[in-house]
């Protein structure tokens, strides 16, 4: 019987690959797996003067598919709610925020979608 890695282990590996990829692009990692009762954000980073909230998806297939399908609307709303808590908690008022998605496939290839989704209305804390 072939043992397959757990979903959590796959997710952790994908997050580590995504973190290294982002650091290679010059992002400064601020937090990993920031959790509240509302939800979790995988990676929070600084891209120049923009705080970037990043959802990491570890793909099991060989193709990435449609990036819009990676993070359903309900999950986007949850990420936005958690990001607002983060910005308030860290006193990052008047800070521009962005929401990215990073997908990692089984071959460890990375697909990074900057500004993958936006909250309804203007968002500046």
The percentage of residues in β strands lies in: 25-35%
Largest sheet: 5 strands, mixed
Helix content: 25-40%
Show unreliable segments. none
Provide the residue-averaged pLDDT: 86
* Strand order within the widest beta sheet: 1-2-3-4-5
The backbone outline, from C-alpha atoms, is globular
Number of helices: 3
State the distance separating the first and last CA atoms: 52 Å
Order of SSEs: HEEEHHEE
CATH topology: Trna Endonuclease, Chain: A, domain 1
CATH class: Alpha Beta
Total number of beta strands: 5
Going by CATH, the architecture would be 3-Layer(aba) Sandwich
Structural class of the helices, strands and pairings? alpha+beta
Number of structural domains: 1
What this model shows, in words?
With 125 residues, the protein is an alpha+beta fold. 31% of the residues lie in helices and 30% in strands. A 5-stranded mixed β-sheet has the order 1-2-3-4-5, sandwiched between helices. The radius of gyration is 15 Å and the shape is globular. The termini are far apart.
Give a nutshell description of this structure.
The protein is of the alpha+beta class. The chain is built from 3 helices and 5 strands, in the order H-E-E-E-H-H-E-E. It starts with 6 loop residues before the first helix and ends in a 12-residue tail after the last strand.
